Amino acid sequence: MAVRLFEDKDHAAKYLKYRVTPNEVVSEIMGLLKKRMPLPGKLAVDVGCGSGQGTVLLAPYFTQVIGTDISPAQLENAQVNQKCDNVSYRQCPAEELPLESGSVDLVTSMTAAHWFDRPRFLEEAGRVLRGGGCLVLLSYAMDMYLEYGDVTEKLKQVCKEVRTVLHTCI
User: Fold this and answer.
1) Tens of pLDDT, residues 64-115
2) Residue 138's closest CA among 70, 54, 60, 66?
3) In CATH, what number does 2-139 get?
4) Helices (DSSP H) in the chain: which residue ranges?
5) CA 129 to CA 106: how far, in whole Å?
6) Who's near 35: CB < 8 A, 6+ residues apart?
7) Domain locations in the chain?
8) Handedness of CA 151, 156, 161, 166 (dihedral sign)
9) In the chain, where do the E strands start and end?
């Protein structure tokens, strides 16, 4: 269903024009990631990249960045409007990433994970991430929960703790 909403070229152009670019959030995430691994890292993947505004923000921190999306129109906008030498784009579903197992340092999804089959996406992210790699999901809403096998309750607790901390900061 999600592909239908974003396959029209006019819609993709408006998405590029009006979507909020998460500059400060990505900078903060990279600061935290730098404490866990040496940067620049080898490979980051931005899943559901849309028109690539968030994808290119990862470019200074990784040797290679790949943006993936299911929509050809979104990827066309990304390729035309978000150029960086170390960034490329691939069309694929979030649950079927065309990457080797254990090859990715960072998997991000910037305001797109709500479209995914979350259990399948989390399994796929776990497959492509290397040991010590990191998964970062950004969302417009704070009421998101994750479900994944036998760690579902732990993931729900982490989401709840994050919301609690954010509410005390506002």
Assistant:
1) 999 999 999 889 989 987 789 999 999 999 999 999 999 999 999 988 887 8
2) 54
3) 3.40.50.150
4) 2-6, 9-18, 23-34, 72-81, 118-128, 152-169
5) 7
6) none
7) 2-139, 146-170
8) positive
9) 41-47, 62-69, 87-91, 104-110, 129-138
